[in-house]
């Protein structure tokens, strides 16, 4: 969440930047400032009363020694009054703290200055394109038909066993999944990311730390008996490694990669755009996460983008990078770049990665800090990105690489699959 210091430093700037995300922040920012003013008034009164109590406590003994019992009794009565007043003040102070926190939780992160204005995905900016565009015949098949033809993915069996959006990967389809995961993890390792295998469920404190709670609980699967959540991405458990941690500055940056299955309810999703692998409730993904000093985070963001681009180049897929406009960004992000691949049979772009810098927004919720060389404790910047999400990568690989003889496997995957064509 935003720090109070950020809001107080320039409230009008905060309101203007929030407007880039389509968020009308004037009232809530003014409410936060009013609560802060009242909180400071209460704290000053508490401090003043504490000083008076200390003075009175010192005087009572002296008055008793001097035989001034009536004055001493009046002082004791005053002590009792102050203690009761202080108790009520402390209650009001605690209430104002809770009210302040609850309001801050409803304010999105500020988009950085590089974020373009805009309301929808139509306003996103195409920054860069690459990769060979496939030339397929008019009768090219979409991936769901290819999956059925070559017995790679069974969507109907998934419906039977669980429900829509939970497919079975069969035979070479399962092996292709595993090959992609291993290729992405190995590539992350070579790029200097430490691999971790995290839990696939998290507690509510972890969801709060990375911003899924209280904003997105309706999109997560909730294990109610234990109050745990199935993760929507490995970002959640991996970033929470650093919750309530003060990192020595010489240990930064922290670079982690992790494979996990991901679960998303995707409530309200239906229609042709969610057919096949286009949108699932459970899918596999490799995530990269970085914890950085603020002055290094935007260079790190570029490194992450280059890493994702290299994966797509190795897979031989046509890709483009979008810089998201304010209206299409997530609640927690300061800037996001989406990577899309071209699905030749569907004739559409499919999102396969988001790479984001959250600046101090997550770190403030997480209390993820570092001790600088001057010994001061400062908030880190957190970043993450998909490297990569599998379903739409598989969809594009199947469609773009189909030939009369079968589906060609990219060379970078062949040592993992053990075959170079699906026929």
Q: How would you sum up this structure, described in words?
A:
Strands 1-11-12-13-16-10-9-4 form an 8-stranded mixed β-sheet. A 3-stranded antiparallel β-sheet has the order 5-7-6. Strands 8-14-15 form a 3-stranded mixed β-sheet. Helix content is 43%, strand content 22%. β17 (402-403) and β18 (406-408) form a beta hairpin. It has helices at 4-9, 11-20, 26-65, 69-105, 143-149, 155-161, 172-190, 204-210, 235-239, 297-315, 361-366, 390-400, 411-417, and strands spanning 125-130, 153-154, 168-169, 194-195, 201-203, 222-223, 228-230, 245-248, 254-263, 282-292, 319-323, 335-343, 348-357, 368-371, 377-379, 381-389, 402-403, 406-408, 421-422. α3 (26-65) packs antiparallel against α4. 37% of the residues are buried. By secondary structure, it is α+β, with helices and mostly antiparallel strands. The longest helix is centred in the N-terminal third of the chain and has 40 residues, at 26-65.
Total beta strand runs? 19
Provide the helix percentage: 40-55%
Give the DSSP E fraction (strand runs of 2 or more residues): 15-25%
The spatial strand order of the largest sheet comes to: 1-11-12-13-16-10-9-4
Structure classification: alpha+beta
Assembly type: single chain
Overall 3D geometry?
Answer: elongated
> How widely separated are the two ends?
51 Å
Overall pLDDT confidence: 95
Largest sheet: 8 strands, mixed
Number of helices: 13
User: Mind telling me the C-alpha Rg?
Assistant: 28 Å
Unreliable segments of 5+ consecutive residues: none
